[in-house]
Description:
Elements: E1 5-8, H1 14-25, E2 29-34, H2 37-49, E3 55-59, H3 65-78, E4 84-87, H4 104-114, H5 116-129, E5 136-140, H6 147-150, H7 165-182, E6 189-193, H8 211-222, E7 233-234
Parallel strand pairs: 1-2, 1-4, 2-3, 4-5, 5-6, 6-7
Amino acid sequence: MMIKKVLITGANKGIGLETARQLLQQGYYVYLGSRSIERGNIAVEKLKEEGFTNVEFIQLDVNDIASVAAARMELGKRTDVLDVLINNAGINGGMPQNALNANIEQLQNVLNTNLYGVVRVTQAFVDLLRKSAQPRIVNVSSSGCSLTLHSDPTWKYYDHKSAVYAPSKATMNMYTIALAYELKDENFKVNAVCPGFVATDFNGHLGTGTVQEAGTRIAKYATIGEEGPTGKFISEEYNPETGECPW
């Protein structure tokens, strides 16, 4: 049986690292993407100390097209197929994020990572994914970018508006819809998945969930079978029954 292979961006810590750990536990071979060589290697060594051997570091800065191209070339030397791509790298852009105070540079920086980074990486590695019998793409999103929920005064996070981060993820969600549609006849499953409101460095550890819960949610949609959804916005924290989150 062929070992399935996954590339995870921004995987040197937090949710990305935990997702790598959980997929290793399921027998996947993990290519751990990280912008920082030092942090990436430390993360790989940590996983190896835990007993995992099927993990390698790939230097990958999603903000830099040259870095993405170099990562694609390097990965192509190590494997001729990729089964899963998890676009996990992201930034929040700093606070506050009021609509009248957010500046264009702040928006550009966040979009460069959260949207353009996803596009760069997906387009660079889709040829390897197409060689998989069951290719999967997970774009890590957030229920906090739901236009429907943010328009509902009864939603518990209604007052937590973000004029930078949320628009970047909402735009990424639309890209996910378009991507899933374009790949619908090629056995791909492409979904935007919210890991939940998780306590990590990303939000100053203000979240209420754990990285273990988040990793489980992402890994689930990275490994779904033929019966699984595609082109969906998933938040099992918001909707534990069906998993679907309103756009």
